[in-house]
């Protein structure tokens, strides 16, 4: 078995890893053809990875022009602890207010504590100028070096 096959996560492991509270690095293509890379907190909408951002952000401008997106969620500081998931796909910019707020609630729930309906006014104020982005994943690349059992 190749080392690549040894460290690949199963679908269940990928799902569990992505559902942990982490930051996602989001890459889109800028107007000059260069990669625009930013770190984003993320959540989910209908089971798909999603994030929200200001409607006038460079990410939104880039994704409206070219919906290609690559995202990376990774962790670990030592070789034997390195884990990560790369998601390659197509982004859909979401403008529907309820869907945008649903993404925002998911992000808040994952990163700032349990979301409750009492937080709705904060969610609405925070999301007033935001749009959502949902990632339709077409390819997943994963690695979990802990599967090597400390062997290099």
Mean pLDDT across the residues is: 95
- What is the 3D shape? globular
Q: How much helix, percentage-wise, in residues?
A: 25-40%
CATH superfamily: Electron Transport, Fmn-binding Protein, Chain A
CATH topology label: Pnp Oxidase, Chain A
What can be said about the biggest beta sheet? Answer: 7 strands, antiparallel
Tell me briefly what this model is.
The protein is α+β, with helices and mostly antiparallel strands and 152 residues long. It has helices at residues 3-7, 11-19, 58-65, 97-111, 120-126; strands spanning 23-29, 35-41, 43-45, 48-54, 68-75, 83-94, 130-144. It has one domain (3-146): Electron Transport, Fmn-binding Protein, Chain A (Pnp Oxidase, Chain A, Roll), CATH 2.30.110.10.
Secondary structure blueprint with pairings:
Layout: H1 3-7, H2 11-19, E1 23-29, E2 35-41, E3 43-45, E4 48-54, H3 58-65, E5 68-75, E6 83-94, H4 97-111, H5 120-126, E7 130-144
Antiparallel strand pairs: 1-2, 1-5, 3-4, 4-7, 5-6, 6-7
Task: Report on this structure.
This protein is an alpha+beta fold and 152 residues long. The protein has a single domain (3-146), classed as Electron Transport, Fmn-binding Protein, Chain A (Pnp Oxidase, Chain A), CATH 2.30.110.10. It is 29% helix and 39% strand. The chain has five helices and seven strands; from the N terminus they run ααββββαββααβ. It has helices at 3-7, 11-19, 58-65, 97-111, 120-126, and strands at 23-29, 35-41, 43-45, 48-54, 68-75, 83-94, 130-144. A seven-stranded antiparallel beta sheet has the order 2-1-5-6-7-4-3, with helices on both faces. It is globular. The model has no long low-confidence stretch (mean pLDDT 95).
């Amino acid at each position: 078995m190749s080392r690549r096959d040894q460290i690949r996560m199963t679908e269940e492991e990928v799902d569990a890893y992505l559902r942990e509270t982490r930051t996602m690095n989001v890459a889109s293509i800028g107007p000059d053809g260069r990669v625009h890379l930013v770190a984003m907190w993320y959540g989910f909408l209908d089971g798909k990875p999603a994030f929200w951002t200001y409607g006038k952000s460079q990410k939104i401008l880039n994704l409206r022009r070219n919906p290609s997106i690559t995202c990376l969620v990774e962790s670990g500081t030592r070789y034997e602890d390195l884990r990560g998931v790369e998601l390659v796909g197509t982004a859909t910019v979401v403008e529907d207010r309820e869907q945008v707020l649903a993404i925002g609630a998911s992000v808040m729930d994952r990163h700032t504590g349990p979301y409750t309906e009492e937080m709705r006014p904060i969610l609405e104020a925070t999301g007033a100028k935001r749009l959502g982005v949902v990632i339709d994943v077409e390819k997943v690349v994963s690695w979990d070096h802990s599967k090597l059992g400390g062997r290099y």
